[in-house]
Protein: 5-methyltetrahydropteroyltriglutamate--homocysteine S-methyltransferase
Amino acid sequence: MSPFPKSTVLGYPRIGPRRELKRALESYWDGRSTRAELDQVGAEIRERTWRGLAELGLEGLPSNTFSLYDQVLDTAVLLGAVPARYREADDPYFAMARGTAGPVTAQRSSVSGGTWGAKPPEGLAPLRMTKWFDTNYHYIVPEIGPETVFKLDAGKPLAEVREARALGFETRPVVVGPVTFLLLAGALDRLDDVLGCYEELLSTLAAEGVEWLQLDEPALVGDRTPDELDAVATAYERLGALGARPGLFVASYFGELGESLPVLAGTPVEAIGVDLVRGGVPGADLSGKIVVAGVVSGRDVWRTSPERALATLGAVRAAQVVVSTSCSLLHVPYDVGAEPDLEPSLKARLAFAEQKVAEVVALARAGFHGASPVDPSVALPGPVVAEGRSPYAVRAAAQAEHLRLPALPITTIGSFPQTGELRAARAALAAGTLPESDYERQVEAEIERVIRVQERLGLDVLVHGEPERNDMVQYFAEHLDGFAVTQNGWVQSYGSRCTRPPILHGDVSRPAPITVRWAAYAQSLTGKPVKGMLTGPVTIVAWSFVRDDLPLRDVVFQVADAVRDEVRDLEAAGVSIIQVDEPALRELLPLRRGAQADYLEWAVAAYRRATSGAGDRTQIHTHLCYSDADQILAAIDGLDADVTTIESARSGARILGAVGAFGRGLGPGVYDIHSPRVPGADEVEDLLRRTLGVLPVERVWVNPDCGLKTRTYEQVEASLANVVTATRRVRESLGA
Ligand code: MET
Ligand SMILES: [Zn+2]
Structure:
């Protein structure tokens, strides 16, 4: 085993500095290019990454951190965990990631009772996708059942090792570790079987001359049961006992190892990676281990303080201390150098992936010896002040009087299809080739179209459709002080999807109303109530890169104050229903249970502050969308919104089991907007009746799972027409 290099990173962005992979994937999926062409783009990105890292002076280069879609899916393939139904697909990998289309829709409606050949008429649904720990990256959840037969397919990591070697680089393959992989799949009982594959992987890599293997175990920073800790010990005892194998580097990130650390330290693994940005210097005795010290943050965009990092490094007691990032750099953009328009004073504070690698290299070269860490003197947060409106019953009565809505009011979540013309108009506006007044007229025309569609369909609470927004966070960031937006700061969210998180760098305030003119315009077109549409303070902060010199809580409260100003102005402009979305409420939930209550308390308080300016007869809605909302239902109820619309249909209406005690208006989604499929009226009616089985009719709202911006008008109109039909049937049968 060769010595561990002095500097490394746990992983690197892979979408390409100009999102080359995104374009290549979409072109392949649309049938405009071949798999070989896609693979070529992947190879170019990998080569560029390795060369770039080496040029910056980084010693330990990772491989197998590239992925065509997702590293957890790659691991499932590596272990042979490909469910049988995908094996016959043209491209099983992307079939698992994205599903397959059924026969064309036109054919579907014209065929009656014919046979469908080998492929099922509906195509294959993709595997489930969910958030990677507390990041905004989404991974594909492996599907493992008793029928799963694990079988190693080491093709991908081997090919990357060889590819790098051909370019003159020795690399350390990175693979998701067995415990995290199985915990994510909910199948830790298969540890024994899976370890057989990992053993084979180790032997294969050793035979290939690979010196070090990185096994990612971020699940070890969460609360783990004694059985799970036993699994950690079993796994790494067994892998460590193997005769011919590479050195084992177990990487943890997104928090402190806690009780997992002594367990891991008791196994024969040679190197342990610790996140020293989120966690403290390990207290356990690691004098026999190499510690890969994550002192450069992979989760923010700020420069590292060299003094603090060197002091931290100096305090780590281990056989060797390697300088590294706190996690993969997947979660930050490529290069600050690609942002010519940012203020120089802000730019001087920023570090994206490339700059962070340079920091790692500089720290490793600086040398560090036995200093004690600087006390990070972050101000302790003060008590949370719960702000509120009148009691719900008082508000509900005032709203019923003022709004006069029918039973089971039908509404949508806010966005309507974003057409190509709109996107082109926005690009032309940004490029200076379309005058602002022309753009605004186009947005107004779209609002009018959206209003007319909803009136024609017979919805009860209308929306303006959000045509002026590129994105529900970026749009607000562009209009608030304290934020900067980048040109090329893309970060992968899932597959080919990227977001460009705004940078919240200073005190936040709202210089002028943001959405009021669009909401007021929409309301002027119709006699039905139009819902104003805002993004909540937690979500704005969760989907931005946030300053690190203030407690997160204080930053969220600043944003809450800005949202509160907007709520007041909407109300003053005659908007009587205002929705403040918080789809990211769950995302910032700390990984350790011990820290969750405190977070939920201030997050809820911030939301209440944002909405506290609304009078009794103004109806506040909120919207959330993630499959495990039932876990924080009490906190959602605590938001004290008059109406909560929430994803449900997509996750099989599982949430209905938990909402009985919900104290306010609730609209569990009656159809999944992630799929182009149009739900039938019967299906919607069924979901609605199930909702009425657990909630009193006065509390129930009818709406889709989420916004409609990724769908086409054709799909939206057909789906909503069925929603209206279903709701009318239910109303009739209730005599409502
Ligand atoms: C991810 S939640 C999206 C809510 C937003 N109002 C929309 O309809 O698109
Ligand atoms: Zn949503």
